Amino acid sequence: MIVSLPDPRHTVTEQADGLVLRIPSKRNVLVVVLLSFMLCIWLVGEIVAPPFLLQSLFHPPTFAIIIFLSVGAWTLGGVIAMYIWLWQMKGCEVITVSPTALIIKRAIFGWGRSKHYDVTGIRQLRVVPFNTLTFDYGRKTIRFGAGVGETEARYILLILTLRVPGLAAVAADRSSEGTLEFVITRPENNNAEEDSSSAC
Description:
three-stranded antiparallel β-sheet; disordered C terminus; five-stranded antiparallel β-sheet; alpha+beta
């Protein structure tokens, strides 16, 4: 039996503002099931909470404050759980690379905050354990591209460095003469830029 080639998780498109890579979030079925159950309980709590809040107004201030803080914490926890659930279901990481900037956006249904990084400030773009792409930006370490396999992560690295050669990662080894060796390995699967069924 011949094992079929797996589809890449990412897709690549050329747009006016640069090369755009989209990586859908990696869904964890167990997390989705647990959060779905927790959100059902949370929703019931949100429905029954207003009467308790109204009744607390007729009690001593200390009791009312405790009730309001408890409901607030319950609501905040539910909002965080809802965000994680939505990210699991419809999250997408959008990476846009141009000669001047690398833009990383974590979006849900297309909505999300974009972070812009000047390519001249990016150092040591590389693949680290757990197949995450990483680079140094000033005194910060920026990570993106989680959820892809090692081969696909290296292929994405290749795409970025071919588009902007200045992003090429520097190997940690130094030769006896003190020079740095630039290493880029091309994976065997050269069709990773084709559309994927899991694209977002």
